[in-house]
Amino acid sequence: MNKEANNHIRERLLKAAEDHFCEKGFERASIRDITADAGCNIASVNYHFGGKKKLYLGVWRRLLLRIRDQRIAAIKEVISQSGGSPSLENLLRSFAYAFLGPLVGETRSGQLVKLMAREMLDRHLPSNMFVEEMIIPTMAAMREGLGRACPDLEESKVPLVLFSIVGQLIHVIRIKAVFEETDLPEIPGLDLTEAVNHIVKFSAAGIRAYAEGAAK
Fold this sequence. Notes:
mainly alpha; Arc Repressor Mutant, subunit A; Tetracycline Repressor, domain 2
């Protein structure tokens, strides 16, 4: 079997596995059902991934790399378009939309949120996987961006700034899900553009105050 055919089989297995892990969780997802949906035999999981656990890791690694690359590309693009000196607001807004996009803007976003929720409740991933493959590379890109947009910000404060922004964005995702599950007239709809604009304005003011305080 040639490389192209092998890659095609791997992709079919990953897509089918993502569907089943999202809907059933790791323990209840059946290799037999996954391979049936992928149009493969059961032995193909061992051949391409070495078992169910590594297939699960493969699903997550593909998701994490895709999301990470989107976020880093957004940061690099806003730096490039500004000639190397982006405004703080443009940097934060670009990062916010890149962060939210895979979680709320794609047809498979609901599955991704489900998969994340299941992993939080029943962990099967290595503890360092998110840190090494998502947080560290994203933080490095954001450190460069913030250094260009707000040169007076201490580099040691970048992780706290990033965690604050990410925390706000995650809360928006959770609130959006809660609001969408209720039809009470007292609960207003959540406009993502308005929410992002608020986070950008609020965070930019805080970052500048942080930087000005450190510079004094």
